[in-house]
Write a structure and sequence with these properties.
The complex is a heterodimer of chains A (117) and B (113).
Chain A: E1 5-7, E2 10-13, E3 19-24, E4 31-38, E5 42-50, E6 53-57, E7 64-68, E8 74-78, E9 87-94, E10 107-108, E11 112-116
Parallel strand pairs in A: 2-11
Antiparallel strand pairs in A: 1-3, 3-8, 4-5, 4-9, 5-6, 7-8, 9-10, 9-11
Chain B: E1 3-6, E2 10-14, E3 19-21, E4 23-26, E5 31-38, E6 44-50, E7 56-58, E8 64-68, E9 73-78, E10 87-95, E11 101-103, E12 107-112
Parallel strand pairs in B: 2-12
Antiparallel strand pairs in B: 1-4, 3-9, 5-6, 5-10, 7-8, 8-9, 10-11, 10-12
The chains are: A mainly beta (117), B mainly beta (113).
């Protein structure tokens, strides 16, 4: 099976712009989670989507949003970019299964490196 | 809410020496525990996980970890490290029936020849 893919791998934007990042999960995985990784804050959970619905949300402002399509692919959008949004954005997919499967392994993509100038 | 503390931000060690990366967690309910490794310019890869049962968990690349409920710890160990083990290691916790995974700040393991 192909792994989790994220596009683009690198992105440079300026303050005030918006950006959309894409994540394609492993085939058969219906859960997609997004994380932000920065040197100062470490890895922080943004949100999780399952069956096209947001199931959990971290403590991020409303400028951060996402969605999931019927084929489980997910996009994350950040509007009105700020310098502090510069980070590695990681996507992870897993097979939640019928029981919710909170313990099921997450498989991470290589990330999208976003730089805001 | 659950939280994770990795007690060492950097751990330098010589090749073939043993290593322990320390992790403590805080949670008022039962949790699942994980260790991930991140190589430069890559995503995270699962090393091992504790769900239930035996407190000693063996993972990939010769790593193992021991769950200690009384001390709320989940330290990662390897008896003999290689240069290729140089990477960032993250401890993570997830509460039962909750999909919000919390990560520690990470420990940078540097293996020197």
């Amino acid at each position: 099976k192909a792994g989790v893919t994220q596009t683009p791998r690198y992105l440079i934007k300026t303050r005030g712009q918006q950006v959309t990042l894409s994540c394609s999960p492993i085939s058969g995985h219906r859960s997609v989670s997004w994380y932000q990784q920065t040197p100062g804050q470490g890895l922080q959970f943004l949100f999780e989507y399952f069956s096209e619905t947001q199931r959990n949300k971290g403590n991020f402002p409303g400028r951060f949003s996402g969605r999931q399509f019927s084929n489980s692919r997910s996009e994350m959008n950040v509007s009105t970019l700020e310098l502090g949004d510069s980070a590695l954005y990681l996507c992870a997919s897993r097979d939640r299964g019928q029981q919710g499967g909170a313990y099921n392994e997450q498989f991470f993509g290589p990330g999208t490196r976003l730089t805001v100038l | 809410a659950q939280s994770v503390t990795q007690l060492d931000s950097q751990v330098p060690v010589f090749e073939e020496a043993p290593v322990e990366l320390r992790c403590n967690y805080s949670s008022s309910v039962s949790v699942y525990l994980f260790w991930y490794v991140q190589y430069p310019n890559q995503g995270l890869q699962l090393l091992l996980k504790y769900l239930s049962g035996s407190t000693l968990v063996k993972g990939i690349n010769g790593f193992e970890a021991e769950f200690n409920k009384s001390q709320t710890s989940f330290h990662l160990r390897k008896p003999s490290v290689h240069i290729s083990d140089t990477a960032e290691y993250f401890c993570a916790v997830r509460v039962y029936n909750n999909n919000d995974m919390r990560f520690g700040a990470g420990t940078r393991l540097t293996v020197k020849p």
